[in-house]
Design a protein that fits this description.
The protein is of the alpha+beta class. It contains eight helices and eleven strands. The strands form two sheets. The protein has an eight-stranded antiparallel beta sheet. Helix 1 crosses helix 2.
Length: 273
């Protein structure tokens, strides 16, 4: 633009920056961004193209949800250092929002996969599937751990990892395979929580990648021991050896009202496969 000193009408200046001219009028009224000149006869506002960079800074800060009060304070003491401090703060907040959105996306993908499984699975089928390695947060439990205590421990862990809601993470229970082979089908030793974003922490449980036996149980939890016996019979028939832990997780809690319709997915690693 060759004539950068030429005055632009409020409509032209608003169009140049992709905003409504009422926004410019409001910014003028609150003293945030003033026009270069105002016609004393009709009150028409005029702007100089050289004001564009200042307006764009204001618009950027507004897009980052910086409050009007914060922007006004910045405008009173505008400098490279004050803008850097403000942008540093907003970049940190933006990074946190991006991390949260990635976590939400992973949670949604998990729910969608569960729905795909629900629509296509044969509840009576026991199959071999491939799984990737994942890190799990675990909480120790035993036979006398009450349900209220389990909820308390899960809630504490989700807060520790700054999850906004309980269902931002996938969670379930674990039984040692050694206990399954001994017929102890209700000897749950851990609750597990899969945090939907990368975490670096000692003491995490590493669920191995590789081949797993996968089965499903529908209905009351009292019927799960019978499913485990079917799994053991299947493994013996096909010459398969189970190892590590059995990982149980409900996959349809958000689409049912009755416990009779509850479906548990059971996945157990295979040794040497």
């Amino acid at each position: 633009m060759n004539e950068k000193n030429k005055l632009l009408t409020i409509g032209q200046f608003a169009a140049l920056h992709g905003i409504n001219k009422k926004t410019l009028m409001w910014y003028d009224e609150i003293g945030l961004f003033k026009p270069t000149a105002v016609n004393p006869e009709n009150g028409y506002r005029f702007y100089n193209y050289r004001q564009s960079s200042i307006l764009e800074t204001i618009l950027l800060l507004r897009e980052l949800n910086v409050s009007i009060d914060e922007i006004q304070e910045f405008m009173k003491n505008r400098s490279a250092s004050s803008l850097k401090v403000l942008l540093d703060k907003k970049i940190t907040e933006l990074d946190q929002d991006i991390a949260h959105l990635k976590a939400v996306r992973k949670t949604l993908c998990n729910h969608r996969q569960n729905m795909i499984t629900l629509l296509s699975m044969d509840l009576s089928e026991i199959s071999v599937v491939e799984k990737e390695k994942r890190s799990l947060v675990t909480v120790d439990i035993h036979a006398k751990t009450s349900f209220d205590k389990e909820v308390e421990m899960i809630t504490a862990e989700t807060k520790k990892y700054q999850l906004r809601r309980l269902h931002d993470a996938s969670y379930g229970t674990m039984i040692p395979v050694d206990d399954l082979y001994r017929g102890n089908f209700t000897h749950y030793t851990h609750l597990f929580i899969e945090i939907p974003f990368p975490i670096k922490k000692t003491g995490l449980h590493m669920q191995p990648g590789g081949k797993y036996l996968r089965a499903f149980h529908k209905g009351d939890w009292n019927g799960i021991p019978g499913k485990y016996q079917q799994i053991l019979d299947y493994a013996q028939k096909h010459g398969l050896t189970l190892c590590g832990f059995s990982y149980e997780m409900g996959i349809n809690e958000n689409v049912i009202d009755r416990m009779e319709d509850y479906i548990v997915q059971i996945e157990i690693p295979l040794n040497g496969k």
